[in-house]
Specification:
Elements lengths: L7 E8 L2 E2 L5 E2 L2 E8 L2 E2 L19 H11 L11 E5 L11 E9 L2 E10 L6 H4 L7 E4 H13 L8 E5 L3 H13 L3 E4 L8 H4 L4 E4 L5 H13 L5 E4 L5 H12 L9 E6 L3 E6 L3 E10 L5 E11 L2 E6 L8 E8 L2 E6 L3
Parallel strand pairs: 10-11, 10-12, 12-13
Antiparallel strand pairs: 1-4, 2-3, 4-5, 6-7, 7-8, 8-9, 14-15, 15-18, 16-17, 16-19, 19-20
Amino acid sequence: MSAEYATFGLAPAMRAGGVLADGGYQVHRDFMDFIVDGRPLLFQLSDLDAVSPLASDIPPAIFTRQVRGLLLEAEAPLPGGRYVIYGCPECEGLDCGAVTAVIERDGGDIVWRDFAWQTDETADLELNGYHGIGPFRFRAAEYRAELERLLDDDEARPRRRVLLIGARVAVLAKLAAALRTIGIGAEITDDATRIPADELRTYGAVAFGRAVGEAERAAVRAAFERAGVEAAYVDGLAPVIPLLVAQIEHALDRGPVERRRLTGLTARAGEAEVTVTSACRVRLVAYRLDRLYRTHTHDVFDGMLEPGSHRIPLDGRAVKGRSFLVARAMGGVLVAPVVR
């Protein structure tokens, strides 16, 4: 086994949820990703839709147990000293498949080795092993320090609630319902200045409707400043629920920009430009408002993209008039108006 050391770190990451074009939805998950040699380990696993066991929405006792397990302070949950590194974002079982690895002490070091895709109690390395990943040797002190800070750091658990402010109550109610469906808390108010500071500190974002004036927006920002909390502020582009959900999810993304997969989206009448940092599947959906303010939805692209910037043609019928694009990839979502 190689004696060369890899660096170990943790960084906030997100599995983007959302209201999908077919009427379905996928759950929003925030988690801490493993950063090996400065790069998210998940990026080495192609376009895997998965989260680490260090997810923010699991009960504190279970979260602590997951950390203690990775610290080798508890017995491995799977035979052969194997631990789940990434699992299904929708459930907890192995039935959907999980990335596992042996985690062990080797002298004064911690080693992760024999990565595999596992769907039952036993891993078949010959058939389902990730032969190009690892082994990774970490300095135990660095490894332990990164994991132990999660046990004392409240910021490891993001504020997954959103405050909705606007004049169109019916739209806000539908938006709040959609956000709650995918796992994001949402509340509606007409005066944030009356909300106690302790409650304001539970919100990670504020979404403003288009009718909210600048004076009211400034009062909301001042209320959050007095409460000593930084929140992301979202200006709703249009009364289209999937579009607003995507805007809010992007605002809640705490992952460092340099470690995101989906980093750029612009759109003109004839094409979109999408930038990704690693190979991944990208889906583009166009939302168009007609003269009667009815919403029209068009799937315009769904495919794998290699790292870099890509120009994607847009059907003129899908983006005529007032239109917007939503780009989704594993771990991120971006929104852009179609500029003419």
